[in-house]
Amino acid sequence: MMKRLRMGVLLLLAFLVGWAMEIHALKGTLAAKAPARSHAANTYANAKNGSAFSANYANAVHDQDKAPKMVAWSADSALGKILAATKGGQRTLAIAGLVSQTPPDQLGALIDQARLCNDATARQSLLDMAYAKWAATDPQSALTFARTAATERFDNQNSNPLNQVLATWAGHDPQAALAAAQSMDLVSLRQDGIRSVLAAWGSGANPQDAVAAAKSLNLGSELGPALSGIYSSWAENNPSAAFAALDQIDNLNTRNSLAGNILQTMASRDPSGALSLLQSLPVGEQNTPPYPINSIFTNLTTQNPQAAVAALNELPGGLMRQRALTSIADDWADNDPTGALSWANSLSNPADRQNAVSNVIQHMSATDPSDAAAQLKDIPDVNQRNQAMSNVLSHWADSDPGAALQWAQQNTSGTAQSMAMSQIVNNVASTDPIAAIGIVQQMANAPNYNSLVFQTVNSWAQSDPAAALAWAGNNLTGTDQSTATNLALRQLINVNPDAGASYVSTMPDGTSRNNLINQVVTSMARTDMDGALAWINSTQNIDPQTRDNAIEGVMSNLEQTDPASAAQKLGSLSLDTSTPAGQNALNNMAGQIASNWATSDPTAAMDWAASLSGPARQNALSSTLNTVANSDPAAAWNAVMSMSPDDPDQSALIGTVANDWARTDPASATDLLGYLNPAQLVNTVSALSNSWLREDPQVASEWINTLPTSPARDAAVQNLINTQGQYDLTSGMAWAGTISSDTGQTRAYTTLISQAARRDPVAAQNAVDGANNLSDAQRSTLTQLIQTAAQNTQGQNAPQGYHWEFDSNGNRHLAPD
Fold it and tell me: How far apart are CA 291 and CA 257, in angstroms?
């Protein structure tokens, strides 16, 4: 819609240009009455006569080929002279005059020159007007120019000019504009262009045609945004017609969203009409977000609070009425808190009265917190009262914390007083932590004194962590000092890690120190990774696990940004690999480095991983191959098969790559099964069948049927049975009977019957009764599952052909007639 408005502005300005020039020539007396307009007319006259066009501009536009070129910016150019001679509205009119005088085939050169203008507002005005004019006269040339500019020169894929051209084009030939948008080669430009054309089409005389066009295109997930643009444009001109045409939209969610947008647009101009449209919907759809009941009643209340109340009284009870009541309370209180409070207290329904009073008081607190606080007693619900009190005190503490504190001490107790004090201290501490400390020290006997101290120290540390740290050290003792010190230290470490590191180095051993050590090295490593490593290695009395974890944290950023450097540095780290923590840290880092490195240079990553030893080697090789297999499973397989058969890690890696390949290309991965040992075979067949069943269950099941009886085939059959909705119950029972182990069979039968019994216990029992390969124990267990599921079903009526029976314990069972 904004693009259409821009075009309208251009046409209006062009009209004003011609009008002002003509009037100035015929009626000189008008100049005395409208000097600004006469000045603009003189500017247009000079421009029209050619004196405003410099030699640079004339050369720029001569024989230009409509392709974007960078034309040197000159203050002596036509636009430069306009900037030097005009301001404000005169400048806008002068730019419009320049555009109106420029022939369409020279607009490209004018746009090129304007791009380098350092006045962003003037530059954008000229670009908007030039593209709009060009699109109105020669849209194909304008589109070609804008497309080249967006992708090859200087707009960095900025689609705004393209969309403006297409929207203007759609104003007089939407079919041609839509065809042009569909021909865009880049997906992002094509999608933006189609939406722009359809939105512009929706603001024209035949928005229904735009809806039909959108539905005829294969837009997929883009259909919703396209329809939203159409209906939003339509609603600007005729919201009632747009609303009435929603039955053209099949998708319920899209239709609800469009209805909300239309009503939102209409609410600002005709809230009563918007409310009538909203109430015309089925009752079940009126409360569906994002229906703008709040916007409707906000505008009604702003116009006439009494009329809003009258409309509220016509609404039935429910969520929509609650939202409307809240909007009236909020907006009335902003303009007339006394009147709003009087209305809220007059409501006969206790719940309505409570909600309205609470909302009015919260809004009153912004202008008169003292009066608002006096009204809190009228809110009976303790949670709503406390919420309102928090809002009141938040505003009051900003303007007069002493008065807020006095009120809280005199009018609250227990939990409410703790909440009140916390709110006051929090507000004061955000701007004046020293004053907040003074307030807290006056409340030494308060039950939440310690939490108020910590809260204040934490706020103080955000602006001056050193001062907060010093205060905690000089004024607190024991656990209180430790807690407050840690709060201040965390802030100090973030802003000054060196100072924080010096303090942490002197702390006694313990969990708090260990946690802070990790924070210190993480903060230091952002700017000085070597310094962070040096500090962790030089600091005394750090337990090995904390040291290893800290080193791993320092390396994480380098592993992502420069894995080759991280690989080189890994060998120089002082990890204690004799401990599980140290070995795990080495393994993790080796894997991360290899994985990140393999994305850019898989050969180098593979060579480096192979140079390692022990578990770190296997982890690095596995990570490398996993990364490669995601994009090229054949390359990963070739890499692992090129390893020496004597390599102790090859066997495990073969299984890793086979699993990766099975997940991405199960049909091709079947060729790898002959290379796997029995344990690998089970894992790979399971991964392969799981992926293949989701992709093509028919072909996958045929392949599973060819597998020899084995644990691997059992795993594939279990995956087949777990795939809901692909096979009927009879087929599933037959498949379960082919599993080779009793345990596997029982698990498969249980899966099938449990799922079936929840849907249809009769069908489940029939399947059990008709299965010939069940043992007595299996049949009994499955029947009990069905009976349990049947007992949990809703309703009293048994399925046709069955009735309920009760055993001696009073348990209900489903039995055939």
Answer: 8
Which among 307, 351, 299 is positioned nearest to 330, based on CA atoms? Answer: 299
Is the Cβ–Cβ distance between 124 and 116 less than 8 Å?
A: no
- Cα-to-chain-centroid distance, residue 51: 54
Structure tokens at 665: 């290309």
Backbone angles phi, psi at 714, to 5 degrees: -60, -40
Burial class (CB in 10 A: 0-12, 13-18, 19+), 283: exposed
Amino acid at 613: S
250 phi, psi to nearest 5 deg: -80, -40
Cα–Cα dist 75/71, whole Å: 12
Residue 157 has pLDDT above 60, yes or no: no
Q: Which two tokens stand for residue 253?
A: 């969610």
Confidence of residue 41 (pLDDT cuts 50, 70, 90): very low
C-beta separation of 203 from 168 below 8 A: no
**DSSP secondary structure letters along 55-83:** HHHHHHHTT--SS---PPP-TTSHHHHHH
User: Residue 708 has what DSSP assignment?
Assistant: P
**pLDDT at residue number 796:** 45
Once rounded to an integer, what is the mean pLDDT over residues 531-537?
86
Question: CA-to-CA distance for 432 and 438, rounded, in angstroms?
Answer: 10
Which helix (H) or strand (E) segment is 131 a member of? helix 120-137
Asked if 143 contacts 173 with a C-beta cutoff of 8 angstroms, the reply is no
10 Å CB burial of residue 105 (0-12, 13-18, 19+) is middle
pLDDT surpassing 60 at residue 21:
no
* Cis peptide leading into residue 290 (ω within 30°): yes
**Taking the model in full, what pTM does it have?**
0.47
Query: Using CA atoms, how far apart are residues 127 and 117, in angstroms rounded to an integer?
Result: 11
Q: Give the span between the Cα atoms of 731 and 722, in whole angstroms.
A: 13
pLDDT at 209 over 60: yes
Specify whether the CB–CB gap between 280 and 287 falls below 8 A: no
Rounded CA separation 393/361 (Å): 11
Q: CA–CA separation, 625 vs 602, rounded Å?
A: 8
Distances (CA, A) of 786 to 416, 734, 760: 54, 19, 9
- What does 620-667 look like in DSSP terms, one character per residue? HHHHHHHHHHHH-HHHHHHHHHTS-TT-TTHHHHHHHHHHHHHHH-HH
Q: If you count them, how many residues does the chain have?
A: 817
> What does DSSP assign to residue 151?
I
CA distance 698 to 718: 15
Q: Is 78 exposed, middle or buried (0-12, 13-18, 19+ CB in 10 A)?
A: buried
What count of other Cβ atoms lies within 10 Å of the Cβ of residue 63? 8
Separation of alpha carbons 334 and 342, rounded Å: 14
Q: How far apart are CA 95 and CA 113, in angstroms?
A: 13
Rounded Cα distance between 651 and 670, Å, is 17
